[in-house]
Amino acid sequence: MVRIKTIDNTVVPYMSAINLKFKIEKKWFSNQFFVTLNSWNAQYHAILGYDFLQRNKVVIDTVNKQLLVGNQKFDFEENSPTNICSETTDCDISESDKNKKESFEQINNNFLTKGDVSEETFHALNVKIANNITVQPFSAEIINLKVPKNISKNKDIIFIPKKNKLGYLINESLNVPTNANLFHTIIENNTNKVIHVRKNTIMGKLSTFDVNDIMSPSESEIYQINNLNLNEIHKMRRDELLKSDFKLGHLNDKYKKEMQDLLLKNYKVFSKSYKTLGETSAVIPEFSLLHNFPLQTKPYSIPLMAKKYAQQEINNLLEAGIIEPSSSSYCFPVIFIKKKQNPNDSNSEPKFRMVVDYRLLNSITETFKICLPKISEIIKNIAGRKIYCVLDLKSAFFQIKLRDEDKRKLAFCTEMGNFQPSRLPFGSKNSTSYFHTLISKCLNGITGKNVQFFLDDIIIAADSLCELKVTLQTVFDRLIKFNLTLDPSKLQLCKPKITYLGFDLNANGFSPSEQNVNKVTNFPRPKNLKQVQMFLGMLNYFRGLIYDYAGIVEPLVKLTKKNTPFVWSVECENAFNTVQEIILKKPTLKNFDPNLPISLITDASKIAICGILLQKKDNVFYPLEFFSRKLTPAECKYPSIRRELLAIYASVKHFHDQLLGENFELLTDAKPLTEYQSLDKKPEIVARWLLYLGTFSFTPTHIPGSLNPADFLSRVVEENSLNVNNITLFQPNDKLSMQNISIEQKQDAILSKIMNDLSVNKQCKQYFLDVNSGLLMIKNAHKNKKKIVNRIVIPKSLIKVCIETAHAPHFGVKKTFEFIRHKYQWKGMYLDTKNFCEHCEKCLENKPKAKLTQTQMIPKRNLAPGQCIAIDVVGKLPRSTDNKNFILTIIDHYSRYLEAYPLQNITSRTIINCLNKYFANFGLPKFLITDNATNFISNEMVEFLDRLNIQHRKSSIYYPMANGLLERAHRTMKESLASMCESTFQWSEKLLFFKLYYNNSIHSVTKFAPAEIFFGRKQNLPLDSFFEPITVENESKYLKNIRNNMCSIRNEFAKNEEQYFINNAPHIKGRKVPNFNLGDKVFVKNFSHPHVFQEKYKGPFEIIKILRNNNYVIKSLKDNKTMKLNVSKIFKQEQPRPNLRN
Q1: CA pair distance 763, 407, nearest whole angstrom
Q2: How many CA atoms lie within 13 A of 30 on its CB side?
Q3: Three-state DSSP class for 819?
Q4: Does the UniProt entry include the keyword Cell cycle (predicted)?
Q5: In the chain, which end has fewer C-beta atoms inside a 10 angstrom radius, N or C?
């Protein structure tokens, strides 16, 4: 609320404010005028205040009776105040002054005087109320009044209320009608009776108002000052609040209704706009400056995309009275920062945050120091609860009032003008300190295990909905008492898991949030000292969650020492990968439970000491916090037994708050305590350590020194998926672009000679110059010698680059060679490829040595592509960056086309979802082959396949080779991923890359790429990115070629498969496969890892069914259970032979 005082300190009552342009002589001015109430009898129709004189640099020359504005001079008016002159007839007024007076009085009569209004002067029309309204005693309501149809739209109108006998009060107002021919005003009931006003009651009269009558034709802006009282604001808050403002969709109907009732009941604590924003003077900020010399800066330019938002934001703040026009000598620029856009709402307009650049002011502002709470202490106090709520204050800083003398110091400038805040702005030096003081005062006495806060985020925790409701009501009552409001759209209500201050909180404890985990795990390998410092600074936020943190990162810390050259060693790489993997697993810590016993584990190494505070529940140790620090150079020289004692001392000192007064168990190698306590003469430092430890009550428990304390930690926490966005996954090598190959060909001595010969029409075997690209190419016959293909000749300088690109998935020599010769050629190409692949270090590290023997192979003769598929699961794998642990693989038996999906879990529901994705892309098969895992034979899976009429075939148990196509693909996939991944958690990203190359590589059995059989064409690889797109000139000819190509593939496919089995027949290992008959008695291998005295086989069983591919169905003779097994897992019980001698 703005207060206006006269020179004698009289407060001037007013209704609203209006920006008007007026003219003095020939010069136009713009100023804000306050429209006063009729009860205040002013002597003048308009008064210009000190702010106008100061802003326009007006000089009052009392000697010459002139007003000096710049280079112009205006004479004083000699007449008396208009109201006095109208009553005094003997005033000595000149003729020109009389004309000016009469003109001004006419304006006054037409627009401002209430009592002298007539229909003839105004051409006034009656105004009726649009609906029935009831006004309670001593309250106010917003009413809608109807504008007569004969008044043109978008024209300003003046409303003059009618005198009434009911006792309600309506003030005159200047309005702009809405599109519905309505305008709004406020009706006040100051009586002790209820007032009812019926629809279409005449409430007053109105007339149109043309600003051009008294102003320049430029548009004027009207800013309504928020001068409502608190009761009126509470009513506005109630009217604007809706049930849909609260996000409660995750609750059932009963709990949802209970929470909605509680929230709507406390409507006073919610605000959705600046007009209804809370306002408090419980804390009054003071901005004391080191000097009083004004500071001014030029305004920053506003980006085009932010100008519309900037204008709207300034208008909203002005309308709510949060800022006001300023003529202050202080002036600071404004910047508009783009807010993060909701990824699910890409069509929404961008939003910005208005921030004043107060850096210059902050440099001369005295600091108001406070101590902010430790984030770690807040998290420890609030974690481990079942239900959470987070409350966010609406425009938090704007809810604190400023002193009048401080407003001018915080003034800011924009392209729309100069303004100053009436509330605490964001960006000033002490804003955070004053706001924290306010919330501390507001929530004093109720913070603890249920309520915590950090700046404008209040978190509430509870173990039941009833407890949560009670705590919420307590917090709401405090906020209402201090007139602070919350943003309903940002509330997080009744969540079992919530992210707060960078941590995920749930009933199990707290762990790093997914966003922070993603930042750490995706941090690139540091290349300089600054990047190492950035990485360590990021990790330091989580050091309390990492066991032996100081010891792990010690190689990285060494790089930050002064005068140390930056050398990224193997130790640095191992430390970098280790700490990323630890954070990727999201270590979870529980909060302290005073009802459980406490344990402390300590450990020491040559470079660091560490300790773990634990509590034991159900015979399981749960970590509460980790402590570690690096040893000083002097401490590194201690003998090992003293370092162990130092670890005990430092850990107990670190966990002083939790351990003092508690009887805890010290799990450590007890030698340091017993050894030093038995000495008569102890070193002074050791004596001080033992003296300090003597103040604590603990029971030493011996654990072997060889036992790693980390073995006590076996916590596993579920997390949600992280987004993986590797934009360089399929990026080709720019060195293989057409332009670069052309340059390198011209620089190659041999190739440049061939190109020169071709340019003078000399014949050079099969070489030719491409007309479009100008590249040197060669004609070669296809492998069936029925088709001529053109390949680019690769210069010697690009041979290694070409092989590296083709070998990216780390396939074998043949597949890598096929990738290359599809488009490129050079002399000795196969030998170069063979040498490169055989000496690839990644392949040597991750691929086993080839075996010459093979198991018996059975040809695959299926109906057609897509008719029969096999599925299986690979894992459990190391957790990936997007929080996946398994891979679901699907292979088409005819074409060998492979699809793979990374999964977080392998429940039947998850697998069904993946199958639905596969069916949507490739259609429904007739047969589905799986093993006998529970997730494949569950009732849910059986019902799913039955509904789709898919025959489910299950392979023999304990015989992976029954699903040999997938098992061989798994081996290739694991070798490729292991070779491509620099860190184990990158495998899900590289899986996409592997699938593309695998499905477009030549299969050793069919001699065709799986994609070529499945789709009739190969898919483009990164190697093909620089070639011109293929166009279809004749569609019928193109389709005919595809049909002919498919027929050719089908014929050659069958021949290649048969020839493969013939060629590999000598390598099939093993003895002759035995044949069994129905009714034969057999024994089965025991698959349960028997100990030395346990039977190796189980039985007897009876063969009750003979299946294909040497599989049998057998039945136990003991309990009649049946199972399907391969012949390799059973042997026949021989029948006793008669003794011929008897």
Answers
A1: 88
A2: 12
A3: helix
A4: no
A5: C
Nearest Cα to 549, choosing from 614, 603, 621, 616?
Answer: 603
**How many Cβ atoms sit within 10 Å of the Cβ of residue 462?**
21
Residues 877 and 765 in one domain: no
Q: Which residue, 1141, 1126, 1057, 1135, is CA-closest to 1085?
A: 1126
939 close to 912: Cβ distance less than 8 angstroms: no
**835 and 907, same domain (yes or no):** no
Give the 3-state DSSP-derived string for 474-530, with helices as H, strands as E and coil as C. Answer: HHHHHHHHCCCCECHHHCEEEECCEEECCEEEECCEEEECHHHHHHHHCCCCCCCHH
Domain co-membership, 756 together with 649? no
pLDDT, tens digit (0-9, with 9 covering 90-100), for 642-656: 888 888 899 899 888
Q: Whole-angstrom Cα distance, residue 200 to residue 885?
A: 71
Whole-number Å distance between alpha carbons of 386 and 389: 11
Report CA 1126 to chain centroid distance, whole Å: 51
Highest mean pLDDT among 139-143, 345-349, 408-412, 674-678: 408-412
- Amino acid letter for position 512: P
DSSP letter string, 3-55 = --B-TT-PBPPEEEEEEEEEEETTEEEEEEEEEEPTTS--SSS----HHHHHH
Q: Which residues have CB under 8 Å from 1134's CB, separation 6+?
A: none
Of 723, 729, 727, 728, the closest CA to residue 994 belongs to 729
For residue 97, the surrounding DSSP H or E stretch is: helix 95-111
Query: What DSSP line would sit under 216-274, residue for residue?
Result: -SSPP---------HHHHHHHHHHH--GGGS--TTS-HHHHHHHHHHHHHTGGGB-SSS
Number of Cα atoms under 13 Å in the Cβ half of residue 215? 15
Q: How many other CB atoms are there within 10 angstroms of residue 220's CB atom?
A: 13
Closest by Cα among 111, 107, 114 to 37: 114
**Beta pairing partners, 781:** 788
Last residue of a domain, which of 789, 811, 846? Answer: 846
The rounded distance, in Å, linking the Cα atoms of 1058 and 912 is 35
Write the DSSP symbol of residue 292. -
Give the range of the structural domain holding residue 1084, as residue numbers without chain letter. 1080-1140
Tens digit of each residue's pLDDT (9 = 90 or more) over 1125-1134: 777 777 675 5
938, 1028: one domain: yes
Q: How many CA atoms lie within 13 A of 406 on its CB side?
A: 19
Phi-psi region of 638 (alpha: psi -120 to 50; beta: other; left: phi over 0): beta
Number of Cβ within 10 Å of residue 737's Cβ equals 13
447 with 503, same domain: the answer is yes
* Helices 570-584 & 529-540 angle (0-180, nearest 10): 30
Q: Cα-Cα-Cα-Cα dihedral of 360, 364, 370, 372, to 10°?
A: 20
pTM: 0.46
Q: What is the signed CA dihedral for 612, 615, 617, 623, rounded to 10 degrees?
A: -40
Neighbours of 721 (CB within 10 A): 13
Letter string b/e over residues 519-539, b meaning 16 or more CB atoms within 10 A of that residue's CB: ebbebeebeeeeebeebbeeb
For residues 322 and 442, membership in a common domain is answered with yes
Say yes or no: 1035 and 889 in one domain.
Answer: yes
411, 330 Cβ separation under 8 angstroms: yes
Instruction: Encode pLDDT of 46-99 as tens digits.
Output: 676 666 776 676 777 666 777 777 667 777 654 443 333 333 333 343 444 444
What's residue 117's pLDDT?
37
CATH for 133: 2.70.40.10
Q: Cα–Cα distance between 588 and 384 in angstroms, integer?
A: 11
**How many residues make up the chain in this entry?**
1142
In a domain, 1031, yes or no: yes
SS3 881: coil
pLDDT at 459: 92
Give the whole-angstrom CA distance, residue 870 versus residue 957: 15
